[in-house]
């Protein structure tokens, strides 16, 4: 018997919105989400869905077993917030000094909604559904610890699906979903460089090895990696976001720190940029008679969707939304997402649900103290999860 997915999800739409609002009140950071995790666990228990925890009790893996043996698909939602004081004026705004300023509360609520519908129809499933409620997406990353603790095994995950709501890509109009065949989001790496010179009185620079002027040369040289050494059609970003050194107007310091981020969608380009940052920094500092320490931290890899799975997902999506509501993204976005780790382990896709909501007449961006999402479109996310599972486990 076929399931009318939209009708089933619409039946619990108010619950999904209520779950989001309750989660919105209690944002937590990183890998420490005790209240959030307990809330999700309580809801899964009420639904009589089997689950276990990982990452010291902060990550949750639910399991819905179908009536017959078959493949296993995982649905993923992140749960963490940001260290931002909320200024939305919402009746359910956070009051603990933190904020769900990226929409992860909505992701969790939409996954709970999908879980409820799927669990009530598990007799129609041939295979299993895993529910990944993940901490630490913003920082330091919860997907990899979950994988290392066995989230993708027992039963082994054959495919994985996730979403991000809000307005990640401005090309995806409100009410539409954005899909991408292949690279969708960039890697997210960190660089930290210490330029070590020799301090002196500012009036006698010849007695110094000036780390500030050396840092300026290093920054200028690093900016030419993307503009002169990477193909223009190969998306990459190198941004220096912090420079710190010095004490006073008449003192040349001993050390200057430079910090920044590197984004790439091609793994080879990512490795090339890392190599050139090290080579250029050491070369410039040597020429300036200074020394350096270069720390390149490989963090989230590029998020790359499976073309075959994405094609099938789009066919499933057409059963939920109109063809005109499915926007194929031609270019990746340069933000990072640790959903990428799950997609390295199993084919799948990540999609965008565009549902920005205005506060004071303005649709504020992600990570803003006035960011909000339109709850009236949550049903689309839950429905797409459910429909994709039903089609995958046919």
From TrEMBL:
GO terms (BP aspect): diaminopimelate biosynthetic process
Cofactors required: Mn(2+)
Free-text cofactor note: The Mn(2+) ion enhances activity.
Pfam families, sorted: M20_dimer, Peptidase_M20
Residues binding Mn(2+), per UniProt: 102, 104, 138, 164, 367
Organism domain of life: Bacteria
GO molecular function, one term: metal ion binding
Keywords associated with the record: Hydrolase, Manganese, Metal-binding
CDD domains: M20_Acy1 (cd03886)
EC number, as in UniProt: 3.-.-.-
Keyword RNA-binding on entry: no
InterPro entries: Amidohydrolase, Bact_exopeptidase_dim_dom, Peptidase_M20, Peptidase_M20_dimer
Residue ranges of domain Peptidase M20 dimerisation in the record: 193-280
Keyword Metal-binding on entry: yes
Transmembrane segments: none
PANTHER family, per database record: METALLOPEPTIDASE, PUTATIVE (AFU_ORTHOLOGUE AFUA_6G09600)-RELATED, PEPTIDASE M20 FAMILY MEMBER
Protein name (Swiss-Prot/TrEMBL): Putative hydrolase YxeP
UniProt organism field: Tissierella creatinophila DSM 6911
Lineage: Bacteria, Bacillati, Bacillota, Tissierellia, Tissierellales
